[in-house]
Amino acid sequence: SMDGAPPPASPAGLSAFVAVSQLLGLTLLATTGAWLGRYRGGVAWHSPLQFNAHPLCMVLGMVFLQGDALLVYRVFRHEAKRSTKALHALLHGLALVIALVGIIAVFESHRAKGIPDMYSLHSWCGMAAFVLYLLQWLLGCGFFLFPGASFSLRGRYKPQHIFFGVAIFILSIASCLLGITEMLLFKISDSYSHFVPEGVLANTLGVMLVAFGLVVGYVVTREEWKRPPLAEELALSMDFKTLTEGESPGGGS
């Protein structure tokens, strides 16, 4: 396009799906807060309520922020690639820090109450999601954000990075669903089967987690909504490939 020309419009439907994802994500956070505030006494550090920081941090970090980080390349379609990469890495990094706070909360709470750690399916899946997420972030920064990785090495790693990005997001949501069920069975096992308000609210939160995951997954995997490379990026990538691989810019990629 000519310099000074307005950027092309987003593909039809993309903006609507992104808006729905954000509405769902914010509703998720509000619902989690309402559940913990209305039925579980709220959140406070270094108190019997410390555990409640765990579900709040995991929904905020491992679901909402992770999902938004996945959407960065679809939303910021016409900004410089390096800025988009930096935002993608920053959101994932922030999600990791918040999730770490949530993990510390549950371990400290268990220790204070004499509850054993890491015995449930929820804890296994949740810890696996966090460890994989941390590794994914470190590898992503190493390959794509910092200079040094060759063009061909980046090209070979990129499909794995994309696959594991979506897979870890799915595992994170599955871990949240297991956690919600576990918490309900611990706290209201006697009344859960009677459709009490807390159970209905928590089940609704679970359904919204699935909906958020589906919407984000749809946006991220729809081929025609992928971020198109800018003209200068294509030129730069060819120059970079020539320098690092010794290939002619006219060669096949």
TrEMBL record:
It comes from Tachuris rubrigastra. Keywords: Cytoplasmic vesicle, Electron transport, Heme, Iron, Membrane, Metal-binding, Translocase, Transmembrane, Transmembrane helix, Transport. It comes from the Eukaryota. This is Transmembrane ascorbate-dependent reductase CYB561. PROSITE patterns: CYTOCHROME_B561. It is a multi-pass membrane protein. It is found in: Cytoplasmic vesicle, Secretory vesicle, Chromaffin granule membrane. GO terms for molecular function: metal ion binding; oxidoreductase activity. Its main location: membrane. Residues 20-221 form the Cytochrome b561 domain. The keyword Transmembrane helix applies. Its cofactor is heme b.
